[in-house]
Design brief:
heterodimer; A: 95 residues; alpha+beta; four-stranded antiparallel β-sheet; two-stranded antiparallel sheet; 39% strand; B: 395 residues; FAD/NAD(P)-binding domain; 2 domains; six-stranded mixed β-sheet; 20 strands
Chain lengths: 95, 395
Protein backbone atom coordinates (compact mmCIF):
# COMPACT_ATOMS: atom_id res chain seq x y z
CA UNK A 1 0.00 0.00 0.00
CA UNK A 2 1.15 3.51 -0.77
CA UNK A 3 2.17 5.73 2.14
CA UNK A 4 1.54 9.48 2.39
CA UNK A 5 3.40 11.61 4.93
CA UNK A 6 0.97 13.84 6.82
CA UNK A 7 2.53 16.98 8.42
CA UNK A 8 0.56 16.26 11.62
CA UNK A 9 0.41 12.47 11.83
CA UNK A 10 3.52 11.31 9.97
CA UNK A 11 3.53 8.43 7.46
CA UNK A 12 0.06 6.87 7.08
CA UNK A 13 -1.55 4.51 4.48
CA UNK A 14 -3.11 6.35 1.53
CA UNK A 15 -6.52 4.83 2.34
CA UNK A 16 -6.70 7.12 5.39
CA UNK A 17 -6.69 10.22 3.17
CA UNK A 18 -9.07 11.90 0.75
CA UNK A 19 -8.01 14.03 -2.19
CA UNK A 20 -9.51 17.52 -2.30
CA UNK A 21 -8.38 18.76 -5.71
CA UNK A 22 -5.92 21.41 -6.78
CA UNK A 23 -5.33 24.54 -4.65
CA UNK A 24 -7.02 27.34 -6.60
CA UNK A 25 -7.64 31.04 -6.10
CA UNK A 26 -11.26 32.18 -6.35
CA UNK A 27 -11.90 35.40 -8.24
CA UNK A 28 -13.99 38.01 -6.45
CA UNK A 29 -17.58 37.01 -7.35
CA UNK A 30 -18.77 40.61 -7.03
CA UNK A 31 -16.25 41.95 -9.51
CA UNK A 32 -15.49 39.18 -12.02
CA UNK A 33 -17.38 38.54 -15.27
CA UNK A 34 -19.67 35.54 -15.85
CA UNK A 35 -16.97 34.04 -18.08
CA UNK A 36 -14.31 34.37 -15.36
CA UNK A 37 -16.65 32.82 -12.82
CA UNK A 38 -17.59 29.82 -15.01
CA UNK A 39 -13.89 29.34 -15.79
CA UNK A 40 -13.22 29.16 -12.03
CA UNK A 41 -16.22 26.91 -11.27
CA UNK A 42 -15.72 24.35 -14.04
CA UNK A 43 -12.33 24.46 -15.77
CA UNK A 44 -9.35 22.54 -14.43
CA UNK A 45 -5.70 22.09 -15.33
CA UNK A 46 -6.04 18.56 -16.72
CA UNK A 47 -2.49 18.03 -17.97
CA UNK A 48 0.08 16.21 -15.83
CA UNK A 49 2.57 18.28 -13.88
CA UNK A 50 3.62 19.42 -10.42
CA UNK A 51 0.49 20.60 -8.64
CA UNK A 52 -0.41 21.88 -5.17
CA UNK A 53 -3.35 19.82 -3.94
CA UNK A 54 -5.60 19.71 -0.89
CA UNK A 55 -5.54 16.41 1.02
CA UNK A 56 -7.31 15.48 4.26
CA UNK A 57 -6.30 12.90 6.85
CA UNK A 58 -9.78 11.53 7.57
CA UNK A 59 -9.19 10.09 11.04
CA UNK A 60 -7.91 13.39 12.43
CA UNK A 61 -9.84 15.72 10.09
CA UNK A 62 -6.56 17.48 9.25
CA UNK A 63 -6.38 19.34 5.91
CA UNK A 64 -2.99 20.08 4.36
CA UNK A 65 -1.37 20.79 1.00
CA UNK A 66 0.73 18.35 -1.02
CA UNK A 67 3.00 19.34 -3.92
CA UNK A 68 2.77 16.26 -6.14
CA UNK A 69 3.97 15.28 -9.60
CA UNK A 70 0.77 13.90 -11.15
CA UNK A 71 2.67 12.29 -14.04
CA UNK A 72 4.71 10.03 -11.74
CA UNK A 73 2.68 10.08 -8.50
CA UNK A 74 5.65 11.38 -6.50
CA UNK A 75 5.13 13.69 -3.52
CA UNK A 76 7.65 16.56 -3.60
CA UNK A 77 6.61 18.55 -0.54
CA UNK A 78 3.86 18.87 2.06
CA UNK A 79 2.67 22.13 3.63
CA UNK A 80 0.25 22.97 6.40
CA UNK A 81 -2.74 25.22 5.71
CA UNK A 82 -0.97 27.79 7.92
CA UNK A 83 1.89 27.85 5.38
CA UNK A 84 -0.67 28.31 2.63
CA UNK A 85 -2.52 31.07 4.47
CA UNK A 86 0.70 33.03 4.81
CA UNK A 87 1.49 32.36 1.16
CA UNK A 88 4.79 30.79 2.17
CA UNK A 89 6.68 28.33 -0.02
CA UNK A 90 4.07 28.42 -2.76
CA UNK A 91 5.69 29.43 -6.05
CA UNK A 92 3.63 31.52 -8.44
CA UNK A 93 1.42 32.91 -5.68
CA UNK A 94 -0.90 29.88 -5.83
CA UNK A 95 -2.11 30.60 -2.31
CA UNK B 1 -4.58 -6.11 -42.08
CA UNK B 2 -3.52 -2.48 -42.64
CA UNK B 3 -1.37 -0.72 -45.23
CA UNK B 4 1.94 0.52 -43.86
CA UNK B 5 2.79 4.00 -45.17
CA UNK B 6 6.48 4.94 -45.23
CA UNK B 7 5.96 8.68 -45.17
CA UNK B 8 3.36 11.34 -44.45
CA UNK B 9 1.89 13.37 -47.29
CA UNK B 10 2.42 17.14 -47.32
CA UNK B 11 -1.24 17.70 -46.52
CA UNK B 12 -4.58 16.02 -45.83
CA UNK B 13 -8.19 17.19 -45.91
CA UNK B 14 -8.64 15.93 -42.34
CA UNK B 15 -6.15 14.83 -39.66
CA UNK B 16 -7.51 12.67 -36.85
CA UNK B 17 -5.44 12.43 -33.67
CA UNK B 18 -5.84 9.03 -32.01
CA UNK B 19 -6.30 5.61 -33.66
CA UNK B 20 -8.67 4.24 -31.06
CA UNK B 21 -12.23 3.18 -31.74
CA UNK B 22 -13.59 6.75 -31.81
CA UNK B 23 -10.93 8.16 -34.17
CA UNK B 24 -11.05 5.18 -36.53
CA UNK B 25 -14.86 5.17 -36.57
CA UNK B 26 -14.85 8.85 -37.57
CA UNK B 27 -12.30 8.08 -40.33
CA UNK B 28 -14.45 5.16 -41.55
CA UNK B 29 -17.66 7.19 -41.79
CA UNK B 30 -15.84 10.21 -43.30
CA UNK B 31 -14.65 7.94 -46.11
CA UNK B 32 -17.80 5.80 -46.47
CA UNK B 33 -20.61 8.31 -45.94
CA UNK B 34 -19.06 11.67 -46.80
CA UNK B 35 -16.58 10.72 -49.55
CA UNK B 36 -13.68 12.37 -47.69
CA UNK B 37 -10.81 9.92 -48.15
CA UNK B 38 -7.72 12.14 -48.02
CA UNK B 39 -7.53 11.55 -44.27
CA UNK B 40 -4.64 10.70 -41.92
CA UNK B 41 -5.15 9.04 -38.53
CA UNK B 42 -2.11 9.74 -36.33
CA UNK B 43 -1.48 7.48 -33.34
CA UNK B 44 1.41 7.94 -30.93
CA UNK B 45 1.25 4.33 -29.72
CA UNK B 46 -0.44 1.48 -31.52
CA UNK B 47 -3.91 1.02 -32.98
CA UNK B 48 -6.57 0.37 -30.33
CA UNK B 49 -3.94 0.45 -27.57
CA UNK B 50 -5.65 3.02 -25.36
CA UNK B 51 -9.04 2.84 -23.71
CA UNK B 52 -10.51 0.93 -26.68
CA UNK B 53 -8.50 -2.09 -25.54
CA UNK B 54 -8.85 -1.41 -21.79
CA UNK B 55 -12.58 -1.10 -21.16
CA UNK B 56 -14.98 -3.78 -19.91
CA UNK B 57 -16.90 -3.84 -23.26
CA UNK B 58 -20.40 -3.14 -21.92
CA UNK B 59 -22.92 -1.67 -24.38
CA UNK B 60 -26.19 -0.15 -23.10
CA UNK B 61 -28.48 2.83 -23.57
CA UNK B 62 -30.27 2.99 -20.18
CA UNK B 63 -29.18 6.56 -19.48
CA UNK B 64 -30.85 9.32 -17.48
CA UNK B 65 -31.07 12.45 -19.64
CA UNK B 66 -33.11 12.65 -22.88
CA UNK B 67 -29.93 13.79 -24.70
CA UNK B 68 -28.01 10.75 -23.43
CA UNK B 69 -30.77 8.20 -24.04
CA UNK B 70 -31.30 9.29 -27.67
CA UNK B 71 -27.56 9.34 -28.36
CA UNK B 72 -26.71 5.94 -26.85
CA UNK B 73 -29.83 4.32 -28.32
CA UNK B 74 -28.64 5.30 -31.79
CA UNK B 75 -25.29 3.73 -30.90
CA UNK B 76 -26.91 0.44 -29.82
CA UNK B 77 -28.82 0.42 -33.12
CA UNK B 78 -25.57 0.91 -35.08
CA UNK B 79 -23.84 -1.89 -33.13
CA UNK B 80 -26.40 -4.47 -34.32
CA UNK B 81 -25.09 -4.80 -37.88
CA UNK B 82 -21.46 -3.74 -37.49
CA UNK B 83 -20.14 -7.32 -37.84
CA UNK B 84 -21.81 -7.59 -41.25
CA UNK B 85 -20.59 -4.07 -42.16
CA UNK B 86 -16.99 -5.05 -41.39
CA UNK B 87 -17.14 -8.71 -42.45
CA UNK B 88 -15.43 -9.31 -39.10
CA UNK B 89 -16.95 -11.09 -36.11
CA UNK B 90 -17.26 -8.65 -33.18
CA UNK B 91 -18.80 -11.37 -30.96
CA UNK B 92 -21.61 -8.91 -30.25
CA UNK B 93 -23.61 -10.71 -27.59
CA UNK B 94 -26.92 -9.40 -26.19
CA UNK B 95 -27.03 -10.50 -22.57
CA UNK B 96 -29.47 -8.31 -20.67
CA UNK B 97 -28.16 -5.80 -18.14
CA UNK B 98 -29.11 -5.55 -14.45
CA UNK B 99 -28.29 -2.42 -12.43
CA UNK B 100 -28.92 -3.64 -8.88
CA UNK B 101 -30.59 -1.42 -6.29
CA UNK B 102 -29.71 -2.00 -2.64
CA UNK B 103 -31.54 1.03 -1.19
CA UNK B 104 -34.90 2.76 -1.60
CA UNK B 105 -33.08 5.79 -3.03
CA UNK B 106 -31.46 3.60 -5.70
CA UNK B 107 -34.87 2.05 -6.57
CA UNK B 108 -36.25 5.56 -7.05
CA UNK B 109 -33.43 6.35 -9.54
CA UNK B 110 -34.11 3.03 -11.35
CA UNK B 111 -37.79 3.94 -11.76
CA UNK B 112 -36.79 7.39 -13.02
CA UNK B 113 -34.35 5.93 -15.57
CA UNK B 114 -36.91 3.30 -16.67
CA UNK B 115 -39.53 5.98 -17.35
CA UNK B 116 -37.12 8.21 -19.31
CA UNK B 117 -35.92 5.15 -21.27
CA UNK B 118 -39.43 3.94 -22.12
CA UNK B 119 -40.42 7.44 -23.21
CA UNK B 120 -37.73 7.24 -25.91
CA UNK B 121 -38.57 3.64 -26.85
CA UNK B 122 -35.63 2.04 -25.01
CA UNK B 123 -36.44 -1.31 -23.39
CA UNK B 124 -35.75 -0.78 -19.66
CA UNK B 125 -37.89 -1.58 -16.65
CA UNK B 126 -37.70 -1.41 -12.87
CA UNK B 127 -37.98 -4.98 -11.53
CA UNK B 128 -38.38 -6.47 -8.05
CA UNK B 129 -36.11 -8.79 -6.07
CA UNK B 130 -37.91 -11.97 -7.25
CA UNK B 131 -37.27 -11.00 -10.90
CA UNK B 132 -33.55 -10.48 -10.14
CA UNK B 133 -33.32 -13.88 -8.44
CA UNK B 134 -34.95 -15.60 -11.45
CA UNK B 135 -32.54 -13.86 -13.84
CA UNK B 136 -29.40 -14.48 -11.74
CA UNK B 137 -30.12 -17.67 -9.72
CA UNK B 138 -26.58 -17.90 -8.31
CA UNK B 139 -26.54 -14.46 -6.67
CA UNK B 140 -26.64 -14.03 -2.89
CA UNK B 141 -29.67 -11.72 -2.58
CA UNK B 142 -28.52 -10.49 0.84
CA UNK B 143 -24.99 -9.72 -0.46
CA UNK B 144 -23.44 -11.18 2.67
CA UNK B 145 -26.02 -9.38 4.80
CA UNK B 146 -24.45 -5.98 4.08
CA UNK B 147 -26.54 -4.77 1.18
CA UNK B 148 -29.72 -6.76 0.44
CA UNK B 149 -30.91 -6.45 -3.17
CA UNK B 150 -34.32 -4.71 -3.35
CA UNK B 151 -34.70 -4.74 -7.12
CA UNK B 152 -32.98 -3.55 -10.27
CA UNK B 153 -33.18 -1.65 -13.52
CA UNK B 154 -33.36 -4.39 -16.17
CA UNK B 155 -32.21 -3.32 -19.62
CA UNK B 156 -32.85 -6.11 -22.12
CA UNK B 157 -30.63 -4.83 -25.00
CA UNK B 158 -27.51 -4.68 -22.76
CA UNK B 159 -24.64 -6.37 -24.62
CA UNK B 160 -20.91 -7.01 -24.74
CA UNK B 161 -18.53 -7.14 -27.72
CA UNK B 162 -14.93 -7.96 -28.50
CA UNK B 163 -13.36 -4.52 -28.11
CA UNK B 164 -10.11 -4.97 -30.07
CA UNK B 165 -12.07 -6.13 -33.12
CA UNK B 166 -14.03 -2.87 -33.11
CA UNK B 167 -10.81 -0.91 -33.70
CA UNK B 168 -9.63 -3.47 -36.28
CA UNK B 169 -12.96 -3.39 -38.13
CA UNK B 170 -13.17 0.40 -38.34
CA UNK B 171 -9.43 0.63 -39.09
CA UNK B 172 -9.51 -1.92 -41.90
CA UNK B 173 -12.67 -0.39 -43.38
CA UNK B 174 -11.06 3.08 -43.37
CA UNK B 175 -7.76 1.74 -44.71
CA UNK B 176 -9.51 0.01 -47.65
CA UNK B 177 -11.21 3.31 -48.54
CA UNK B 178 -7.91 5.18 -48.75
CA UNK B 179 -7.50 6.57 -45.23
CA UNK B 180 -3.88 6.50 -44.04
CA UNK B 181 -3.27 5.16 -40.52
CA UNK B 182 0.12 6.19 -39.12
CA UNK B 183 1.04 4.45 -35.88
CA UNK B 184 4.04 5.54 -33.75
CA UNK B 185 3.37 9.11 -34.91
CA UNK B 186 2.85 11.58 -32.08
CA UNK B 187 1.35 15.01 -32.62
CA UNK B 188 3.75 17.55 -31.06
CA UNK B 189 2.02 20.74 -32.11
CA UNK B 190 -1.05 22.15 -33.85
CA UNK B 191 -0.50 25.24 -35.97
CA UNK B 192 -3.13 27.98 -35.97
CA UNK B 193 -3.26 31.16 -38.05
CA UNK B 194 -5.97 33.79 -37.66
CA UNK B 195 -8.00 31.56 -35.33
CA UNK B 196 -8.04 28.67 -37.85
CA UNK B 197 -6.20 25.38 -37.88
CA UNK B 198 -3.57 25.28 -40.64
CA UNK B 199 -1.42 22.28 -39.80
CA UNK B 200 -0.05 19.65 -37.45
CA UNK B 201 3.54 18.93 -36.40
CA UNK B 202 4.94 15.45 -35.80
CA UNK B 203 8.50 14.10 -35.37
CA UNK B 204 8.07 12.64 -38.89
CA UNK B 205 7.37 16.04 -40.41
CA UNK B 206 4.70 18.73 -40.61
CA UNK B 207 1.35 18.34 -42.33
CA UNK B 208 -0.89 21.03 -43.81
CA UNK B 209 -4.56 20.61 -42.95
CA UNK B 210 -7.57 22.79 -42.19
CA UNK B 211 -9.44 20.22 -40.08
CA UNK B 212 -8.24 18.33 -37.01
CA UNK B 213 -10.33 15.91 -34.96
CA UNK B 214 -8.96 15.14 -31.49
CA UNK B 215 -10.05 11.73 -30.10
CA UNK B 216 -7.39 10.91 -27.52
CA UNK B 217 -9.30 10.14 -24.27
CA UNK B 218 -7.01 10.66 -21.25
CA UNK B 219 -4.50 12.67 -23.28
CA UNK B 220 -7.04 15.37 -24.24
CA UNK B 221 -5.77 18.08 -21.85
CA UNK B 222 -2.25 17.80 -23.31
CA UNK B 223 -3.57 18.36 -26.84
CA UNK B 224 -5.79 21.25 -25.68
CA UNK B 225 -2.76 22.92 -24.06
CA UNK B 226 -1.27 23.25 -27.57
CA UNK B 227 -4.25 25.48 -28.47
CA UNK B 228 -4.64 27.20 -25.09
CA UNK B 229 -8.20 25.83 -24.81
CA UNK B 230 -9.58 25.29 -21.30
CA UNK B 231 -12.07 22.58 -20.31
CA UNK B 232 -13.26 20.98 -17.07
CA UNK B 233 -11.61 17.65 -18.04
CA UNK B 234 -9.64 15.99 -15.24
CA UNK B 235 -7.86 12.67 -15.52
CA UNK B 236 -8.03 9.77 -13.08
CA UNK B 237 -7.01 6.15 -13.77
CA UNK B 238 -9.76 3.53 -14.09
CA UNK B 239 -8.71 -0.04 -13.35
CA UNK B 240 -10.18 -3.37 -14.41
CA UNK B 241 -9.33 -7.08 -14.09
CA UNK B 242 -10.25 -10.52 -15.42
CA UNK B 243 -10.47 -13.91 -13.73
CA UNK B 244 -9.15 -17.18 -15.09
CA UNK B 245 -11.54 -18.75 -17.64
CA UNK B 246 -14.32 -20.77 -16.01
CA UNK B 247 -17.37 -22.65 -17.33
CA UNK B 248 -20.17 -20.36 -18.53
CA UNK B 249 -22.49 -19.59 -15.60
CA UNK B 250 -23.17 -15.84 -15.79
CA UNK B 251 -25.29 -14.85 -18.78
CA UNK B 252 -26.42 -11.29 -17.96
CA UNK B 253 -24.27 -8.24 -17.20
CA UNK B 254 -24.45 -7.25 -13.52
CA UNK B 255 -23.83 -3.76 -12.15
CA UNK B 256 -24.03 -2.70 -8.53
CA UNK B 257 -23.59 0.98 -7.79
CA UNK B 258 -23.57 0.45 -4.03
CA UNK B 259 -20.93 -2.30 -4.18
CA UNK B 260 -18.95 -0.52 -6.95
CA UNK B 261 -18.90 -3.55 -9.26
CA UNK B 262 -19.68 -4.28 -12.89
CA UNK B 263 -19.13 -7.78 -14.22
CA UNK B 264 -19.87 -9.95 -17.23
CA UNK B 265 -18.54 -13.28 -18.46
CA UNK B 266 -16.72 -13.17 -21.79
CA UNK B 267 -17.03 -15.70 -24.62
CA UNK B 268 -13.74 -17.19 -23.32
CA UNK B 269 -15.22 -17.74 -19.85
CA UNK B 270 -13.26 -15.01 -18.08
CA UNK B 271 -15.12 -12.78 -15.64
CA UNK B 272 -14.47 -9.21 -16.81
CA UNK B 273 -14.72 -6.91 -13.79
CA UNK B 274 -14.46 -3.20 -13.13
CA UNK B 275 -15.04 -0.77 -10.27
CA UNK B 276 -14.85 2.96 -9.53
CA UNK B 277 -12.21 5.44 -10.58
CA UNK B 278 -8.98 5.68 -8.66
CA UNK B 279 -9.50 8.36 -6.01
CA UNK B 280 -7.03 11.00 -7.21
CA UNK B 281 -5.51 12.53 -10.35
CA UNK B 282 -2.78 10.46 -11.97
CA UNK B 283 -1.42 10.06 -15.50
CA UNK B 284 0.08 6.56 -15.37
CA UNK B 285 -1.59 3.21 -16.04
CA UNK B 286 -0.14 1.43 -13.02
CA UNK B 287 -2.18 -1.21 -11.19
CA UNK B 288 -2.77 -1.41 -7.45
CA UNK B 289 -3.41 -4.21 -4.96
CA UNK B 290 -6.00 -2.00 -3.21
CA UNK B 291 -8.14 -2.22 -6.32
CA UNK B 292 -8.00 -6.03 -6.60
CA UNK B 293 -8.71 -6.47 -2.89
CA UNK B 294 -11.64 -4.06 -2.86
CA UNK B 295 -13.27 -5.36 -6.04
CA UNK B 296 -12.77 -9.04 -5.09
CA UNK B 297 -14.35 -8.43 -1.71
CA UNK B 298 -17.46 -6.94 -3.31
CA UNK B 299 -17.61 -9.71 -5.92
CA UNK B 300 -17.67 -12.23 -3.06
CA UNK B 301 -20.53 -10.34 -1.40
CA UNK B 302 -22.62 -11.16 -4.49
CA UNK B 303 -21.10 -14.50 -5.50
CA UNK B 304 -19.45 -16.19 -2.47
CA UNK B 305 -18.77 -19.42 -4.44
CA UNK B 306 -16.08 -17.58 -6.46
CA UNK B 307 -13.68 -17.57 -3.49
CA UNK B 308 -11.33 -20.11 -5.12
CA UNK B 309 -11.27 -18.42 -8.55
CA UNK B 310 -7.97 -16.76 -9.49
CA UNK B 311 -7.52 -13.25 -10.88
CA UNK B 312 -5.53 -13.55 -14.11
CA UNK B 313 -4.76 -9.98 -15.16
CA UNK B 314 -5.35 -6.39 -14.13
CA UNK B 315 -4.70 -3.13 -15.94
CA UNK B 316 -5.70 0.54 -16.06
CA UNK B 317 -6.70 3.25 -18.53
CA UNK B 318 -6.73 7.05 -18.24
CA UNK B 319 -10.28 8.40 -17.96
CA UNK B 320 -10.96 12.00 -19.09
CA UNK B 321 -13.72 12.91 -16.63
CA UNK B 322 -16.21 15.80 -16.82
CA UNK B 323 -18.22 17.33 -13.96
CA UNK B 324 -21.60 16.30 -15.44
CA UNK B 325 -20.51 12.84 -16.66
CA UNK B 326 -21.40 13.75 -20.25
CA UNK B 327 -18.86 14.01 -23.09
CA UNK B 328 -17.54 17.19 -24.74
CA UNK B 329 -18.07 16.97 -28.50
CA UNK B 330 -18.14 19.02 -31.66
CA UNK B 331 -16.87 22.41 -32.77
CA UNK B 332 -14.54 24.49 -30.55
CA UNK B 333 -13.51 28.17 -30.42
CA UNK B 334 -10.61 27.30 -32.79
CA UNK B 335 -12.07 27.01 -36.29
CA UNK B 336 -11.29 23.63 -37.84
CA UNK B 337 -10.48 21.99 -34.49
CA UNK B 338 -13.09 19.41 -33.48
CA UNK B 339 -13.23 17.59 -30.16
CA UNK B 340 -14.47 14.11 -29.26
CA UNK B 341 -13.51 13.99 -25.58
CA UNK B 342 -14.68 13.78 -21.99
CA UNK B 343 -15.46 10.11 -22.51
CA UNK B 344 -14.36 9.27 -18.98
CA UNK B 345 -15.53 5.79 -18.08
CA UNK B 346 -18.39 5.54 -20.60
CA UNK B 347 -16.89 5.79 -24.11
CA UNK B 348 -16.74 2.26 -25.59
CA UNK B 349 -20.49 1.84 -26.07
CA UNK B 350 -20.62 5.15 -27.94
CA UNK B 351 -17.93 4.27 -30.49
CA UNK B 352 -20.23 3.87 -33.55
CA UNK B 353 -22.43 6.90 -32.86
CA UNK B 354 -19.39 9.06 -32.10
CA UNK B 355 -17.92 8.08 -35.46
CA UNK B 356 -21.22 8.88 -37.19
CA UNK B 357 -21.85 12.23 -35.49
CA UNK B 358 -18.24 13.47 -35.51
CA UNK B 359 -17.75 12.61 -39.20
CA UNK B 360 -20.90 14.64 -39.96
CA UNK B 361 -19.63 17.50 -37.77
CA UNK B 362 -16.18 17.51 -39.39
CA UNK B 363 -17.59 17.26 -42.93
CA UNK B 364 -20.17 20.03 -42.52
CA UNK B 365 -18.47 22.22 -39.89
CA UNK B 366 -21.68 22.16 -37.82
CA UNK B 367 -22.55 20.07 -34.77
CA UNK B 368 -24.70 17.01 -35.50
CA UNK B 369 -28.15 17.42 -33.84
CA UNK B 370 -27.54 14.37 -31.60
CA UNK B 371 -24.55 16.04 -29.89
CA UNK B 372 -26.20 19.40 -29.11
CA UNK B 373 -26.34 18.48 -25.40
CA UNK B 374 -22.60 17.81 -25.28
CA UNK B 375 -21.13 21.03 -26.69
CA UNK B 376 -17.82 22.63 -25.65
CA UNK B 377 -19.50 25.89 -24.57
CA UNK B 378 -22.17 24.39 -22.25
CA UNK B 379 -20.11 25.10 -19.13
CA UNK B 380 -19.74 28.81 -19.92
CA UNK B 381 -23.55 28.85 -20.36
CA UNK B 382 -24.05 26.92 -17.07
CA UNK B 383 -26.15 24.39 -19.02
CA UNK B 384 -24.80 21.02 -17.96
CA UNK B 385 -26.14 17.62 -19.06
CA UNK B 386 -26.31 15.81 -15.72
CA UNK B 387 -25.65 12.16 -16.47
CA UNK B 388 -23.97 11.06 -13.24
CA UNK B 389 -27.09 9.17 -12.11
CA UNK B 390 -26.63 6.80 -15.05
CA UNK B 391 -22.96 6.01 -14.37
CA UNK B 392 -22.45 2.31 -13.67
CA UNK B 393 -21.03 2.87 -10.22
CA UNK B 394 -20.76 5.89 -7.92
CA UNK B 395 -17.42 7.21 -9.13
Amino acid sequence: MKILVCPLNGPRPISEFVYGGEVRQSPDPDKCSDAEWSDYVFNRSGSPGQKHEWWCHIASGFWFVVLRDTARDVVIDTLTSEDVRRGLRLPGGAA
Amino acid sequence: MFTRHDSLRAGYDVVIIGAGGHGLAAAYYLARDHGIRNVAVLEKGYLGGGNTGRNTTIIRSNYLTPEGVKFYDESVRLWQDLSADFDLNLFYSTRGHYTLAHTDAAMRTMRWRAEVNKHFGVRSEAVDAAFVKRGIPSIDMSCGGHAPILGALFHEPGAIARHDAVAWGYGRGADRRGVEIHQQTEVTGIRVAGGRVVGVDTPRGSIATSKVLCAVAGFTPRILDMLDLHTPIYVHPLQAMVSEPIKPWLDPIIVSGSLHVYVSQSARGELVMGASLDPYELHTTRSTLDFVEGLSSHMLDMFPFLSEVKVNRQWAGLADMTPDFAPIMGVTPVEGFFLDAGWGTWGFKATPVCGKTMSHTVATGRNHPLIEGFTFDRFARYQLTGEKGAASVGH
